[in-house]
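Researcher: I'm preparing a figure for a lab meeting and need a structural model of a single chain. I don't have an experimental structure, so a prediction will have to do for now. The sequence is pasted below. Please return the structure as tokens so I can convert it later.
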Amino acid sequence: MGKGHHQLPKIPDASVYKVENSVVLMNLQKKLAEKGLKDPWIRNHVWRFEDYNRSKYPKSILSSFFLQGYKYWIPLIGLTIAVESFLGIDYSGHGHGHEADSEH
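Model: Understood. Here is the structure written out token by token.
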């Protein structure tokens, strides 16, 4: 405990986080402006949408795919079910001795 004296992580200055650098937040700001609204705290969310964070944290790429990418995977699930139904693919039983006991 306490043996390694590692450097503390460098905390970037708040001025590096600009809404203009994030396409997602700029689109959100534009949609809000169309409705006559403004989010004064939007700059606090810039760090989530910065491109450099995605390269540092690949976990955020996965979570954004599964949480925000539902518009892609829900149709893919439906397509998979439709193709399996059309082709008659059935995964129940597998045909490995799970049939009725009358055959034994």
